[in-house]
Amino acid sequence: MNLRIEKIANVTLIVAQGRLDFSAAASFQAQIEQALAGAGGAGTAVVIDCEGLEYVSSAGLRVFLLAARNAQRAGLNFSVCALQNAVREVFELSGFSRVMAVHPDRAAALTAAAQKPA
Amino acid sequence: MQSRTSVPGEAAQLAALTRFLQDFCVTAELPSAAALPFEIALEEIFMNVVMHGSPAGRLARVDVSLALCDDDLTMAVVDDGPAFDPLSLPAPDVNAPLDARRVGGLGVYFVRQMMDAVSYTREGPRNQLRMSKRVIRAKAAPAGTKPG
Fold first, then answer.
1. Which of A58, A68, A85 sits opposite B44 (nearest CB)?
2. At what angle do helices B32-52 and B106-114 cross, to 10 degrees?
3. pLDDT in tens, A43-98
4. CA-to-CA distance for B61 and B54, rounded, in angstroms?
């Protein structure tokens, strides 16, 4: 899987693409941790754009959980956006969509990030 | 239509198993949306065997078979590791707050939720997990013609 990081004002946008299975999870986690560390501290926002993410298993979901938790502890405003159907199903079944902010698309996530500082 | 493969129970085999499943689904002309729940189920069950199914010093052997009968796809994952029924795991608390969240048990929970039927049997020295689900075919080829 591929990961690209963009900075848009006070938002760190992580664009995830491909398959997030057990094999990809460790590298994904390391890159997310790096992105969180470089996000700019409390009050800034981190958005994971999942438009290109085709597949997430429980091993991949674990990375989202750790990221959301670490972001919360660091005072960052964390959200995910643009989930494909297969990924949305996994988020909904696991209840993750109830413990982290999920936006329909990138524009909505960026608007929310600008309006709601952590 | 049926197919079968066999791999050692090590994480590096996940990609080969996923490819085996994807190839089967392409040949069977199943839409990718129909294949995805099986990809997740295969990863979750196989990785359970990898993590817990190999006693020290010996890799478990894992056989995966697929059968498409009418509109039902059935997948069986059989391993020769220690007896373990993944369906005996307690369901995770999917309503816990962020701080109390754990991922353990989610994989098997996905399998139960995504499949129409799941069953475990211990047959001699082997664990057998069978999963099936109705799949919607991409489109039926007209009678008497071959695709492609």
1. A58
2. 150
3. 899 999 999 999 999 999 999 999 999 999 999 999 999 999 999 999 999 999 99
4. 9
Query: Distance (Å, rounded) from C-alpha B108 to C-alpha B92?
Result: 9
List of residues 6+ apart from B33 with CB closer than 8 A? A85, A86
The structural domains of chain B, ordered by start, are 2-134 (3.30.565.10)
The C-alpha of A37 sits at a distance from chain B's nearest C-alpha, in angstroms, of 20
CATH number reported for the structural domain that contains residue A110 in this entry = 3.30.750.24
Best residue of A1, A19, A22, A27 to probe chain B, by most B CBs closer than 10 Å:
A22
- Shortest distance between the Cα of A101 and any Cα of chain B, in A, equals 11
Q: Do A69 and B99 lie within an 8 Å CB cutoff? A: yes
